[in-house]
Amino acid sequence: DQDTGEVLFSKNPRVVLPIASITKLMTALVVTEAGQPLDEILPVAEELVGVLREHPSCDRAEIAGSARRKTDTCHDIDLIATSDSPKELAAHIAGYKSIATAGNPSDNGVKLETHTGIGVDVRIVAPDAFGNLLQHFSGSAAHNERLRALAVKEGLHVSENGILDDKTGETDRFRTEEEVYKRLGYDYIEPELREN
């Protein structure tokens, strides 16, 4: 009652509730962990892969990761490229107008963040290992783990660097994903189906 200060009704009066700001913080954390919708990420990924492709030193560039698999949400953008001047290519995209922050461009690529807060991982590799890297970074993690587990049973070890054969000690590197899957004894698997 407003006049007497007497509590007229209460529900679970002994339950301690979180502070509203903590609830808001946790909501923001859940949204961040969920990623951004594909329809917001994909146009940015397509624009950035186009920036790579337009550079004279770029031999090939593709979108990888969850954007390539067309998942509902994406945490970041993965781009894979080949170049005879990888550091120059990495510096080119790091200076693009939609990039807010960039790590140090190197022969392996560069980590970026757009002005809209999207993280971008650009990996640059020799042409003969492009297929290995594209397959690895397209994922999914569960798909790659399953491939690795099955490969080990055959004496093979799969990574973004190639396929190591225990019998020969040789590491095979492949220009295309189709070659990677063929070496493992499988038909090519479309990225959208690579969930496991």
Summary?
The chain has 196 residues and is α+β, with helices and mostly antiparallel strands. Helices cover 38% and strands 23% of the residues.
The SS-based structural class is alpha+beta
| Strand order in space, largest sheet | 2-4-7-6-5
**What is Rg?**
23 Å
For the termini, the CA-CA separation is: 61 Å
Mean pLDDT: 90
Q: Give the beta-strand count.
A: 10
The general outline is extended
Which sheet architecture does the biggest sheet show? 5 strands, mixed
The H-and-E topology, N to C, reads as: HEHEHEEHEEEHHEEEH
- The percent range for helix content is 25-40%
Low-confidence stretches: none
How much of the residues is beta strand, in percent? 15-25%
Number of helices: 7
Keywords:
single chain, five-stranded mixed beta sheet, three-stranded antiparallel beta sheet, alpha+beta, 196 residues, 7 helices, 23% strand, 38% helix
Verbal overview:
By secondary structure, the chain is an alpha+beta fold. Helix content is 38%, strand content 23%. It contains 7 helices and 10 strands. It has helices spanning 20-34, 38-54, 65-69, 86-94, 130-138, 141-153, 177-183, and strands at residues 36-37, 58-64, 73-74, 76-83, 99-102, 109-114, 119-125, 156-159, 162-165, 171-172. It has a 5-stranded mixed beta sheet with strand order 2-4-7-6-5, with helices on both faces. A hairpin with a 6-residue loop joins strand 5 and strand 6 (109-114). Helix 5 (130-138) crosses helix 7. It is extended. The N and C termini lie far apart (61 Å). The mean pLDDT is 90.
